Amino acid sequence: MAQLIVAERFMRPDLLGTVLNDSLTGLDYFARKSPFKLPAHYRLAFRELGLSIGLQAIERLQGLIEQYPAVFKKRHDVLSRIRSLMEYPRLSELINAFWLDRNNRESGSWTEHRAINMVMLATSLSPDGYLSPL
Fold it and tell me: How many CB atoms are located within 10 Å of the residue 67 CB?
């Protein structure tokens, strides 16, 4: 979405702020629930790995904003939300480490969704192919 905003091909540039705000709300809730204390069979790898990928996308979004400051200079709401979301970078590492553990990948919640889980884990470990710049 931010790439489309930079290219001036996005009809609703205000939507980025809404998505970031909702992301922050969801992430705050997620972090308060302490989901990392639960064993693998209570967790969904593809969901957590999607979060990990999204957190890595925030880092790239920050870089995009720094690269094109004129496009985002009036979007203080976007910048403040990105700063808030950047406080959660370690979650990505925790998620990846958990699902890299072979014991966790032997749980039913992993094996029942093995194909999507493997794709999501690979993307989370090496997001450059998915999260490419402009």
Answer: 12
Q: What is the pLDDT of residues 85-119, one digit of tens each?
A: 888 868 899 999 999 999 999 999 999 999 999 99
- 4-39 burial by CB neighbour count: b if 16+ within 10 A, else e? ebbeeeeeebeebbeebbebbeebeeeeeeebeeee
The vertex-93 CA angle with 88 and 94, nearest 5°, equals 90
Burial group, residue 103, by CB count within 10 angstroms (0-12, 13-18, 19+): exposed
For the record, the structure tokens of 84 come out as 């808030």
Sole residue written with tokens 């972090």? 31
Separation between Cα atoms, residue 128 and residue 54, nearest integer Å: 12
